[in-house]
Design a protein that fits this description.
4 strands
Length: 191
């Protein structure tokens, strides 16, 4: 007799395939979850490493910023010291300036001119005197312009003698001094 299978084999086969599918789906889901977990750990470690590097760089930058501030302070101190040194050198050079000015005035004043007053005015000198002639005053002004210490002779006034028997004319002249350090500059830098 022929063999007839009356059992529901198709349903059993379907159930077996469904169980295999669910088993494979479970294994794949487990693998996916495991891979996501591994990726999460990997990127978390990378993120933590990057945070560590960022924190290290921030700390190094703050150290360098502090050093830059110190260098700027040192440069400012250095500039201040250089200004003081320059001022001291200028003062040292102009230490004998008064004596040199009087020697130079004696050299540039020709015969026939008599000085009655030499007064310091700012960075220059105001000279009052008497002159036998205007030509002698011109010679004095030329000598002042040739001088290494004096410059800028400016004749303010010439007043001729009121009486005929008086031969001398009064004059007033301002002269600048080369290399003179004004007093307010000295006071401003030495503080």
């Amino acid at each position: 007799m022929p063999y007839i299978n009356l059992l529901p084999w198709r349903e059993t086969a379907r159930k077996e395939r469904q169980q295999q599918f669910l088993a494979i789906l479970g294994v794949i889901s487990g693998l996916v979850v495991f891979l996501v977990f591994l990726l999460n750990m990997y990127y978390s470690e990378r993120l933590a490493g990057q945070e560590y590097r960022n924190n290290y760089l921030r700390s190094e930058i703050s150290i360098l910023d502090q050093r830059i501030r110190e260098i700027r302070n040192l440069n400012k101190t250095k500039d201040d010291l250089n200004q003081r040194i320059e001022l001291i050198e200028l003062l040292q050079e102009s230490r004998n300036l008064g004596t040199q000015i009087f020697n130079e005035i004696a050299r540039v004043v020709p015969a026939g001119i008599y000085l009655t007053k030499v007064e310091k005015k700012g960075s220059g000198l105001l000279i009052n005197g008497k002159s036998e002639s205007n030509n002698r005053l011109s010679n004095m002004m030329r000598e002042i312009e040739r001088s290494e210490l004096l410059e800028g002779a400016d004749l303010d006034s010439i007043v001729s003698a009121e009486r005929e028997d008086q031969l001398l004319s009064d004059f007033s002249m301002t002269i600048a001094v080369k290399g003179y350090i004004p007093e307010q500059k000295q006071g401003g830098k030495s503080k």
